[in-house]
Amino acid sequence: MIACGVTVRMLIVVVRTLILYALVVLVLRLLGKRQIGQLQPFELVVVIMISELAAVPSEDVGIPLVSGIVPILVLLLAGATLSYFSLKNEKARAILCGTPTVLIDKGRIVERELEKNRYNLSDLLEQLRLKNVPNVADVEYAILETNGEVSVIPKAEKRPTIPEDFQISPKDEGLPIPLVMDGKVHIENLNQAGVNTAWLEAEIKKHNLQGVEQVLLASIDASGTLFVQENRRKKILH
Length: 238
Hints:
Layout: H1 2-31, H2 41-59, H3 66-88, H4 90-97, E1 101-105, E2 108-109, H5 111-116, H6 121-130, E3 139-144, E4 150-154, E5 177-181, E6 184-185, H7 187-193, H8 197-205, E7 215-220, E8 226-230, H9 232-237
Antiparallel strand pairs: 1-2, 1-3, 3-4, 5-6, 5-7, 7-8
């Protein structure tokens, strides 16, 4: 009887956990497509609170499931409301998200802004190295964005050259279109690229492959060049 009771309790925990998991995924999906590092402060607070609210009722079966669902939905509504106000009102956006801060101004570090934002020199130099501008003297502006990222604008003479500097207008290369992914043909992409399965199979055989099942990825670019990579895992299994 005891073992049966424990089993039932575990099944209840599993079901409650799956329900809350699905709800949290849905809520985060509705909040928008952002990585954790791109969240604004109020959005990060919502995410943290949602995770905490979901954890408690999933572990304690004595707490009604609705006691976890309702606060999560309330946070979703609050987060969506704040996002709407920050989108529509500049003052609200400044209060909720803050404003960008200039950390380097024309090659000079702005010390008072470092202190104000509790941003140390080591972190600043690390960000410069990550942006491939390791020398502070080569930086026109370094701006601490509201999501914590540092935008680095090099001085004009230190910026990489682009075709426009040489008055060159390169052709638009477009995006490669994946035709085969993990052995499966994407018919819609074939139609978009203006080719058919017969052409695709013939091209694949030119790469010494017997069929699409042996292809990990096949994509075609704007010039009509086909890239094919063999799926070695399938080859090993066969």
